[in-house]
Design goal:
mainly alpha; 96 residues; single chain; two-stranded antiparallel sheet
Length: 96
C-alpha cells in the first residue's frame, strides 16, 4: 500500500486522519507519517489499515490491476449493476 493510496482511500470515504485512526486503532501520527512518505510502513500496520479500508468498501488495486499498471483505489459497487434495456427488449411500450 502506498502513501497515495492511503490518502485516496480516505478521500473516497470522506474520512479524516482521526477517523482512520479511530477505526483502525493506528495512531494519528503514524498515519500522517505514512501518508507523507516520511516512513515506510510496518507490514502489520499497513495490513490493519488495508483491512479497515476494505471493511468500509474500498478496493486497493495493486500494480497489475489498473489499466496504466500502477496502484490505485476504488469503491466497491453498492448493489446490483443497472444494465439498462437490451436492444432485444426495445419496443414502443418502453420508448420514453
Amino acid at each position: 500500500m502506498t502513501d497515495a493510496q492511503i490518502r485516496a482511500a480516505r478521500g473516497l470515504l470522506a474520512w479524516t486522519v482521526g477517523d482512520l485512526a479511530e477505526r483502525s486503532g493506528v495512531q494519528q501520527g503514524t498515519i500522517t507519517a505514512l501518508e507523507s512518505g516520511q516512513m515506510l510502513g510496518d507490514p502489520k500496520v499497513c495490513d490493519v489499515i488495508a483491512r479497515t479500508f476494505e471493511g468500509a468498501g474500498v478496493i486497493l488495486l495493486d500494480n497489475c490491476c489498473t489499466a496504466e499498471g500502477g496502484p490505485g483505489v476504488r469503491l466497491r459497487r453498492q448493489g446490483p449493476c443497472d444494465e439498462g434495456i437490451h436492444p432485444n427488449q426495445l419496443s414502443t411500450e418502453n420508448d420514453q
